[in-house]
Amino acid sequence: MDKIIIIDFGSQYTMLIARRVRECSVYCEIVPCDRVPALDGAVKGVILSGSPSSVNDPDAPAADLEGIRGRLPLLGICYGAQRMVRDSGGVVAPEDMREYGRATIKILDAGDPLFEGVRSGSTVWMSHGDTMVSLPEGFRVTASSDDIPNIAYKVDGEPTWGLQFHPEVHHSEDGAKLISNFVTGICGCSADWTPENFITDAVRVIREKVGSDKVILGLSGGVDSSVAALLLQKAIGKQLHCIFVNSGLLRKGEYESVLRSFEGMGLNIKGVDATEMFLGDLQGVTDPEQKRKIIGRDYIEAFNRAAAEIGEARWLAQGTIYPDVIESAAGKGPSRTIKSHHNVGGLPKDLKFKIVEPLRLLFKDEVRRVGKAIGLDPAILGRHPFPGPGLAIRVLGEVTPEKLRILRDADDIFITLLRERGLYDKVWQAGAVLLPVRSVGVMGDDRTYENCVALRAVSSVDGMTADWVRLPYDFLAEVSSEIIGRVRGVNRVVFDISSKPPATIEWE
Ligand code: XMP
Q1: Same domain, 103 and 213
Q2: pLDDT truncated to tens, each residue of the chain (508 aa)?
Q3: How close is the Cα of 502 to the center of ligand 1, in Å?
Q4: How far is the CA of 458 from the centre of ligand 1 (A)?
């Protein structure tokens, strides 16, 4: 399969470049700038990412482009473009007329294949304090903006281009076209990165890798582990053994429905009810991180016990996806901001298994497409993300069976109504939170002193940032009166209108 290599200088947008390339059905990989591997014949072109650094910083990141520049099509974006300018003797400097955000491109060389179908006058997105003040010899300016003379260049006599702006960012109106011009036009990559090709290839690789060994996989009921399970099942059938742990912290009816749905798909699945252990160990614990630690530990315990019953297995399968892989590989860059506590529910590295991770090259949206192509139940495919520690971090303070009952019932009403009113798919993640406060109410002639439930519904792309969804007032009114009327122990419902940042999606 043809591929593009993206050399990462640490920009927050590097993953977006990869996504845009893959949207052209072209496979690509991100590599850290200080560890560029030898390129094989499948590599048809290279993109240099942006960076939070300035090329003039003493420890500015650099990459060894020996063997790349002049031989393969090369596109520098922002810092990547400036890096080549500076390395070839040009001048990059902070500008007085800094252009941040939106700018307008004036294309000077309309015949440049990079600009085919890109409109002069369209918006491009700038995000760097430095500009390319003077270009080295042989670097020909191909576009400018109102304030900056050099926002794009082509190097004469070699297939090298540079862009001051970020075509990968949504605000660059014709950016996707520009990236497609580079990867499919200039690099000539064939558009063969499709879910079907991925599945065929993954099945072959899994078979070669595990042979006739047994493989164990921990299902969470989420999209990633489910798609991983179906891929493995397609490859090795009953050699795959799935374990699904009931922590007692799942949503109402979820344990049963997930088990049923996977059994229906013919998966070899073992349900383990460890509710007692989890709730017992959580007794009296109020600190959120402590809760996460206990849950992580208990999960491993329950998983190991179930695995021992399955018998000799050499392989552990995991639903690791590409952003997790980049996170653990990159020294610099966007990954630094990802919370470490989100790994709860994962298994420790020192287990005596070899690891198979069939999704490690996929982005989340690609996982969904593969899931669809492989026939995953649409109800699981479209499911909102749900945190590994489950409802334990949505019962604020100590977790008790009674509080879980209240939260489960309230959450179920909220989620069911979201589905019934056609709002579920418009929300990225939703759920109810049981607050550790009681408030006064009145029911009939009696005063009540009962619990308060908060509703949370957010829009997001990847959970890193989020905004609260403007759910219709009438809908909120319906949810509120259903919860208060039907869930014993609740007399007040509030709606969380905080964005992330500065708030987070979960309350704990
Ligand atoms: P926050 O609350 O950090 O959440 O804005 C961002 C996303 O991560 C989920 N989340 C977790 N997932 N283990 C997980 O597997 C955790 O400990 C955890 N904490 C938060 C959260 O539901 C949201 O999707």
Answers
A1: no
A2: 899 999 999 998 998 999 999 999 999 999 999 999 999 999 999 999 999 999 999 999 999 999 999 999 999 999 999 999 999 999 999 976 566 788 999 999 999 999 999 999 999 999 888 999 999 999 999 999 998 999 999 999 999 999 999 999 988 999 999 999 999 999 999 999 999 999 999 999 999 999 999 999 999 989 999 999 999 999 999 999 999 999 999 999 999 999 999 999 999 999 999 999 999 999 999 999 999 999 999 999 999 999 999 988 999 999 999 887 776 655 444 333 333 444 444 556 666 789 999 999 898 889 999 999 999 999 899 999 999 999 999 999 999 999 999 999 999 999 999 999 999 999 999 999 999 999 999 988 889 999 999 999 999 987 888 999 999 999 999 999 999 999 999 999 999 999 998 999 999 9
A3: 15
A4: 13
Asked if 251 and 377 sit in the same domain, the reply is yes
Beta bridge partners of 216: 241, 316
Which numbered atom of ligand 1 lies nearest the CA of 466? 5
| Contact 4 CB / ligand 1 (< 6 Å) | no
Answer yes or no: do 136 and 210 share one domain.
Answer: no
The answer to the question of residue 144 being in a domain is yes
The answer, yes or no, to whether any atom of ligand 1 lies below 6 A from the CB of 388, is yes
Q: Which CATH number do you get for residue 259?
A: 3.40.50.620
Residues in Cβ contact with 248 at an 8 Å cutoff, skipping those fewer than 6 apart: 274, 275, 276, 278, 279, 404
pTM of the full structure: 0.82
Among candidate residues 24, 78, 187, 242, the one labeled active-site is 78
222 lines ligand 1 (CB under 6 A): no
Q: State whether 23 and 114 are in the same domain.
A: yes
Q: What is the DSSP string of 297-357?
A: HHHHHHHHHHHHHH----EEE----HHHHHHHH-SSSGGGGS-GGGGTT---TTSSSEEE-
